[in-house]
């Protein structure tokens, strides 16, 4: 076993120093004595970019030489985080760069902190896309990520008197060293206008006269595979005004109006919608979706035609398009439009191609997240696409549905892409299922529910279409790069290629009972906690002890994720401690990280409540420091990378049936945290892998939640009969945590009682509290805890995103790997 990094550095520290200095002087226009940390970070990134670009060129040559089949991953979100550390690790340049910088009087860790996160996503779905790109490149699979080059990614979160304040994110205010603009590949995207029917030949021809044309300019971000693998690209589209349409206005003295048009065009890629799991139905959002899908489909077609001209027979052999949720579903009618209107293909042939090319991943069952657009809006923005959707729907209902359920009008209404009602709607989920050859959920239980509850009739119609691909995470970022101490310890005990073959972590099971290994493992955890303690202090001024148990809940703020269940339990502990200062518990730090959608008032109130409760508890000398609560501001990928290695407990407490998969659960367990969780999403598979003894599973199951709903759930049953529940809810309603402002936290109790407690917080409270007792007891037994922590790390191999990608390849994409020639 050898450290891979020592084996493979492709450059000496000395040569690298030369490159860094050259960029500092030659591209940054500064010099060693004067350069800011920003300038050093940039110069280092540009130096590394030389290696990245060489890999990119080789990969592209290889792909064109072999005319490779590729997957095109269409996603509104790519939550990339920072790239320098990741690229250094994947290129085996990390240690040599550290040494090179040291010689220049610079510290690599400090420079890494200069990089703004590329936060072009909300949460799980966006981060999944980023992990998948890492795996695709690492596995030498031809792939292009397509998305939007947002000027502003997810908002920056601040707290003012405990309340969330949003500020715009400006990740590329001063340019970004990783992206390359490709003006030569710009595309035109049409919008609005009307459709003319021309009766010339045998079949009438539809002509779309667009009202506006927008330019889509691509920015390419190289995606570096691990260990000398391929470098793929992430292509992000920026909207610009087309530079020919406004000259008349301009010359007629309409300079200001021309600017307004330009501003309008540029609005499209201006900002990421910060809603996670609620469809706001906004016109600009539909335009964003169409904008990037149209540009991407045009780019895919251009790449194909460069090699094959007008011969479309190979198209489905070379092109796979994956829809990351329904957000890019408009790509289906767009490809139909291009094939039929621009290339005169017969409807049947075009549809055959679409169904072979597209596949769709479902990420949620929450009804409020299932996208629907009014027919009225479609007619206005995309009139030709509405026509095409009607045609698709007509064929589908009269051929397929009628054949399966002859004369069944109720079934037709149920399966129709168009929802009838007082306002007619286009159902994007139905469009995605009908237009795809495969549809997958993201964890086993979720895929089962997609089949039985969300799309049961589609499942009956096409029993082979609905399938499962359990999510995964890249071990390069989420263990090797973010937890160097644990990675180094692992390197000492198993083959150093575990970042490629994560199942090899199983080799650590044999060490789980070894006292020395336990000690080393927990020493790493403790050092990581010491680092996080410093970071917590830097960010909040709060002092916590690294000897306490670190209990971590990090994810978007949502009722179904039940941060308020965690909060109620914290209140119960606080109350027990006040009642009895001798109350026996291991000192615990409850850590939160969460952004709330700006319009989601209850979620913002929960953040406020956590901050107010934290303030009171952290300053209460009566409880002897046994309890601390910290909500770190501005949770994002780079903060997750600091919190996860220091976590002892991973909170995964969603209402069963609501969390499609979760991926934070995988990251935390991989880094040796023990899960306290419900039987929901990937928790089930995590518990299967780790073993029930090494997790704390509690609460209602999916079937029990259904049964409870069927017999009628009444949260007052718990409020009235459980003294502790009643006490903590009433406490929240007093002014104890918000002096002088009684009722400031009332919305939470209100939602849990009068609101009916839709996410069964009160029903699960007692089971959760009992499970937390078990956590406490186990933590006192240091050996038992260390053993479980090790077993968690050792058994997470399944959740390597390389495995997820291999599942997509085997079941859906059928790609071949092409290591680059060089
Ligand atoms: C229309 C608004 C909207 C925006 C984003 C609706 C839904 C979304 C996403 C689907 C939300 C999301 O990120 N879902 C998460 O996807 C992860 C990756 O599969 C899963 O692990 C999470 O369980 C799921 O909540």
From TrEMBL:
Q: Which Gene3D superfamilies match?
A: Glycogen Phosphorylase B
The record, for InterPro entries, names: Glycg_phsphrylas (IPR011833), Glyco_trans_35 (IPR000811), Pyridoxal_P_attach_site (IPR035090)
A Pfam family this chain is assigned to: Phosphorylase
Q: Keyword annotations for this protein?
A: Carbohydrate metabolism, Glycosyltransferase, Pyridoxal phosphate, Transferase
Record function comment: Phosphorylase is an important allosteric enzyme in carbohydrate metabolism. Enzymes from different sources differ in their regulatory mechanisms and in their natural substrates. However, all known phosphorylases share catalytic and structural properties. Allosteric enzyme that catalyzes the rate-limiting step in glycogen catabolism, the phosphorolytic cleavage of glycogen to produce glucose-1-phosphate, and plays a central role in maintaining cellular and organismal glucose homeostasis.
Similarity section: Belongs to the glycogen phosphorylase family.
The protein depicted here goes by the name Alpha-1,4 glucan phosphorylase
Organism annotation: Saccharospirillum mangrovi
């Amino acid at each position: 076993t050898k450290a891979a990094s020592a084996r493979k550095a492709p450059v000496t520290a000395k040569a690298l120093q030369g490159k860094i200095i050259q960029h500092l002087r030659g591209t940054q226009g500064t010099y060693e004595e004067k350069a800011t940390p920003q300038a050093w970070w940039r110069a280092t990134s540009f130096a590394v970019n030389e290696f990245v670009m060489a890999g990119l060129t080789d990969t592209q040559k290889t792909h064109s030489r072999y005319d490779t089949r590729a997957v095109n991953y269409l996603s509104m979100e790519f939550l990339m985080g920072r790239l320098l550390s990741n690229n250094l690790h994947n290129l085996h340049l990390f240690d040599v760069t550290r040494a090179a910088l040291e010689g220049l009087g610079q510290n690599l860790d400090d420079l890494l902190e200069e990089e703004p996160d590329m936060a072009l996503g909300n949460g799980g779905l966006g981060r999944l896309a980023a992990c998948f790109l890492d795996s695709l490149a690492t596995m030498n699979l031809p792939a292009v990520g397509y998305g939007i080059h947002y000027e502003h990614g997810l908002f920056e979160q601040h707290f003012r008197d405990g309340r969330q304040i949003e500020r715009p994110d400006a990740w590329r205010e001063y340019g970004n060293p990783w992206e390359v603009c490709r003006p030569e590949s710009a595309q035109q995207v049409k919008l609005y206008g009307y459709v003319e029917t021309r009766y010339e030949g045998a079949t009438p021809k539809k002509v779309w006269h667009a009202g506006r044309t927008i330019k889509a300019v691509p920015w390419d971000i190289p995606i570096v595979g691990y260990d000398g693998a391929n470098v793929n690209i992430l292509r992000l589209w920026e909207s610009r005004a087309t530079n020919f349409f406004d000259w008349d206005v301009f010359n007629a003295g309409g300079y200001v109006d021309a600017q307004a048009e330009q501003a309008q065009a540029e609005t499209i890629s201006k900002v990421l919608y910060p809603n996670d799991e609620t469809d706001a139905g906004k016109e600009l959002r539909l335009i964003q979706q169409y904008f990037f899908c149209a540009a991407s489909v045009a780019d895919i077609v251009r790449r194909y035609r460069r090699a094959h001209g007008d011969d479309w027979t190979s198209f489905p052999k070379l092109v796979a398009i994956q829809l990351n949720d329904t957000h890019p579903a408009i790509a289906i009618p767009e490809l139909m439009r291009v094939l039929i209107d621009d290339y005169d293909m017969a409807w049947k042939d075009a549809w055959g191609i679409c169904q072979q090319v597209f596949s769709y991943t479902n990420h949620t069952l929450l009804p409020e997240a299932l996208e629907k657009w009014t027919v009225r809006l479609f007619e206005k923005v995309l009139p030709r696409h509405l026509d095409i959707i009607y045609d698709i729907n007509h064929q589908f209902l009269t051929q397929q549905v009628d054949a399966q359920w002859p004369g069944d009008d109720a079934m037709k209404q149920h399966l129709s892409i168009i929802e009838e009602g007082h306002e007619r709607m286009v159902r994007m989920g139905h469009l995605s299922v009908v237009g795809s050859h495969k549809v997958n959920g993201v964890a086993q239980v979720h895929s089962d529910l997609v089949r039985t509850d969300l799309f049961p009739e589609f499942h009956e119609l096409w029993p082979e279409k609905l399938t499962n691909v359990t999510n995964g995470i890249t071990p390069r970022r989420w263990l090797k790069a973010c937890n160097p101490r644990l990675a180094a310890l692992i390197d000492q005990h198993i083959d150093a290629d575990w970042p490629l073959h994560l199942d090899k972590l199983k080799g650590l099971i044999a060490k789980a009972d070894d006292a020395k290994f336990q000690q080393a493992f927990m020493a790493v955890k403790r050092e990581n906690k010491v680092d996080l303690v410093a970071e917590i202090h830097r960010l909040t001024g709060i002092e916590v002890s690294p000897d306490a148990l670190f209990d971590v809940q990090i994810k978007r703020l949502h009722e179904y994720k039940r941060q308020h269940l965690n909060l109620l339990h914290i209140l119960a502990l606080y109350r027990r401690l006040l009642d009895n200062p001798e109350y026996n518990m291991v000192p615990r730090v409850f850590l939160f990280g969460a952004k709330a959608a700006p319009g989601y008032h209850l979620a913002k109130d929960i953040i406020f409540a956590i901050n107010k409760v934290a303030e009171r508890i952290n300053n209460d000398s009566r409880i002897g420091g046994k309890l601390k609560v910290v909500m770190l501001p501005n949770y994002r990928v780079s903060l997750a990378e600091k919190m996860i290695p220091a976590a002892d407990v991973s909170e995964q407490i969603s209402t069963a049936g609501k969390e499609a998969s979760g991926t934070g659960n995988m990251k935390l367990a991989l880094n040796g945290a023990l899960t306290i969780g419900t039987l929901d999403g990937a928790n089930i598979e995590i518990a299967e892998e780790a073993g029930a003894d090494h997790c704390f599973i509690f609460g209602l199951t999916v079937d029990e939640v259904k049964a409870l709903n069927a017999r009628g759930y009444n949260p007052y049953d718990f409020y009235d009969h459980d003294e502790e529940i009643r006490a903590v809810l009433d406490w929240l309603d007093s002014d104890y945590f918000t002096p002088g402002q009684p009722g400031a936290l009332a919305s939470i109790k209100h939602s849990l009682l009068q609101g009916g407690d839709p996410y069964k917080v009160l029903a699960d409270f007692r089971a959760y509290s009992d499970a937390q007792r078990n956590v406490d007891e186990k933590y006192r037994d240091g050996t038992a805890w260390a053993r479980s922590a090790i077993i968690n790390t050792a058994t997470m191999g399944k959740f390597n995103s390389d495995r997820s990608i291999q599942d997509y390849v085997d079941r859906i994409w059928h790609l071949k790997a092409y290591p680059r020639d060089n």
